[in-house]
Write a structure and sequence with these properties.
Blueprint: H1 12-18, E1 28-35, E2 41-43, E3 51-53, H2 55-67, E4 72-78, H3 95-106, E5 111-116, E6 130-131, E7 134-135, H4 138-154, E8 158-161, H5 168-178, E9 185-192, H6 199-205, H7 225-237, E10 241-245, H8 251-260, E11 265-269, H9 271-282, H10 288-302, E12 306-309, H11 312-323
Parallel strand pairs: 1-3, 1-4, 1-12, 4-5, 5-8, 8-9, 9-10, 10-11, 11-12
Antiparallel strand pairs: 2-3, 6-7
The structure holds ligand PBG.
Residues 115, 117, 119-120, 162, 198, 201-202, 214, 270-271 line the site of ligand PBG.
Length: 324
Amino acid sequence: MLIRPRRLRQNDAIRSLVRETTLSKNDLIYPLFVVEGENIKSEIASMPGVFHFSIDTYLLELDEVVTLGIKAVLLFGIPEHKDELGTMGYNDKGIVQQAVRESKKCYPNLMIITDVCLCEYTSNGHCGLVLDGEILNDESLELLSKTAISHAKAGADIVAPSDMMDGRIMHMREALDLAGFKNTAILSYSVKYASAFYGPFREAAQSAPAFGDRKSHQMDPANVREAVKEALLDIEEGADMLMVKPALSYLDVIKAVKEKTNLPLCAYNVSGEYSMVKAASQNGWIDEKKIVMEIMLSIKRAGADTIITYHAKDVARYLDGEKE
Ligand code: PBG
C-alpha cells in the first residue's frame, strides 16, 4: 500500500489542522535604540527600517509598537559620554534609565527589557573593565550589577545581561535582591557566540571594540555542548529566562538548549541576519514577507519560545494580514 503524506496537505484547512509550529505576536520582542537629544529619528545605514530615537520620538514609536500588539521591547542606550568605566551605564540619569521611566509612565503594561552590558558605555567598546589589554571578569561584575539595579530602579521589568562574564547572573541576582528588586527578572544572554552577525549592531550602538575582539568571553561558534553548559550554569545561578544568540546559524544550539533545560527560551535574530534579508529584499531578490515568516517559524520550530527581532513590527503586521 502506498502511504500518502500528501493527504494532509490537500488544502489550507487541513494544513492548519496538522501544523506543528505556530507564531504569534506574544512571541515577539522588539529591540529599540535610544539616544540623547530631541526630535531625533535617524535611520541606521546598515539596518534599513531601524532608527536611533531620542526619548520624544521613541515614545511615538512605542505607541505604534503597542498598537500593533507587541508586548515587549528590548532597550539599548547610546550615551553621548563614554569613559573607561562605562559610568553612564549605571547613572540613574542615563539614557536607558530615562527611557525606561518614560515608557512606564506612558505604557505601564508594555514589558520593558533592558540590555545590560558595558560595551555601549565604555570608551574602548569592551564589555567589561580592561587592564593591560585583558577584559577583567570579577572586577566587571560589580559595574554590571550596578547597571542592572539602576535599570530596575527606573522600572525595567526584565534585565538582560549580554556581557558574558562568568558568574554574572549569580552576582546580579544577589545584588538585585539586596537592593529590593526581587521581582525584577533576569533574561540571560546565556549562549552568546563571538559572531560576525553583530556587525550592523555595532555600527548602531557605536560599540565596536577599539582593539582586540570579544573571543575571550563570547562563545566559539564551533561549540554546542558548551552552550548547554552555559545554560545550565545560568539556571543554577538564578536566571529566569535563557537566550541563544544569534539565531539562524545556531538553530541546532537552540534545539540542544531547549532539550536540556526547562526555562523559557529566547532566540535573538540579530542585526546581521536582519540586514541580509533587507538587502536582498531591496534588490528584489527575495519575497521579504515570505522569507521573514519562514525565518520566524524556523526559529520557533527549533525550540525558541520567544524571538527578539528587528522584524517584529513587520511580523505583527503580517500576522494581522493573515486574519483578513
Ligand atoms: C552587547 C550586545 C550586542 C548585541 C546585543 N547586545 C553586541 C555585541 O556583543 O557585540 C548584538 C545584537 C545584534 O547584533 O542585533 N551589548
